[in-house]
Protein 1
Amino acid sequence: SLVTDAASRKIVGHHLSTDMKAESVVKALKMAVKDKRYNANAVHHSDRGSQYCSAVYQDELQANHIQPSMTDGYDCYQNALAERVNGILKQEFLLYRCKTLEELKRLIRESIAIYNEMRPHLSLDMETPNQVHNRKGQLLELA
């Protein structure tokens, strides 16, 4: 599960699990809201997966004063940022099959760090997500 800041493209929360239960994806959200900039004025956009529609997930959004927003169907273009971030990680970073879950967790942490700190984005005028995030960033988009 990934939570991405829509303005900066920074991955601000992540959690790897063997399932997509609401309790698992809430962990990525909790990591994201540790950054106090998302209190009271953030919008969380996601697809209509059952984990995001669940009371557990919606309660966590409400507890952090985050407004939910969901796609109105199953069109991947309505959640384009999430699809793009997932694609970048899979195509550029996660290039080999890990033997253990711990190895995969380490690879994901390293990949996200490189993505956030070193990978410039054309959509960000060739700056990295961290560079932009340190200046602005109010919206959350779930990937």
Protein 2
Amino acid sequence: MSQNKGRVLIIAGSDSGGGAGIQADIKAVTALGGYAATAITAVTVQNTLGVTGVHPIPVAIVAAQARAVLDDIGADAIKTGMLGDVAMVEAVAALLDSAHDVPAVIDPVMVAKGGASLLAAEAVAAVRTLLIPRAGLLTPNAPEAEALTGLPVATTDDLRRAGEALLKLGARAVLMKGGHVDGARVVDVLMTADGETSFEGERIDTRHTHGTGCTLASACAVGLAQGMGLTEAVARAWAYVNEAIRRAPGFGAGHGPLDHGWPLREKR
């Protein structure tokens, strides 16, 4: 792993509760030894009980944040999260084109853990046509995969079918997340044109899973930024998130945050 790499530009929304969004992204990238820079797309009012307000940042300001980072600090990977609407998706697609040699991890965030919508309905089509073909890695959960493909996703085999459809839409790799699929074990499937790798573990009985999707995508992104191969980056990210769930601090009365910082304490 190169010590001169590891820069991740994160384009996503802010979570005032610190469990998801930009806050989770920065924590994950830092805990795994990378450097996080950001372009914030929205300020949300939220805690473990849910989202009660969203203030979008103007698209031109978001694009300017990203451009400022790329023109000076640079990036070894770009990770996207909450984008909000069609104009933001279009701006991000243009930005990815301008940084075409930088791998993009696209987390197609649509709904917050508490159920609040974080992506306008008309923007789903824009994600499908503009971002999926630009994704080095796409990380949908089952509901997001259903929205993007129109296919039902209730089983692991359904995940695979949806993953195949997303690869046909142009993603170079997809990590199909199985947390929403019923069963005693959670199975995530990494799929590329060359084959698939499954990541499987016992389902952890906890309500403290806020930000797992953001955290996993950013953990994958920093691995790619550090020069890891795709499967190696996803394997490390998967293990990191699994342990972060196990060590969740128990904050809040709702869907609580993970323990993002656990690797840092292990190194002491």
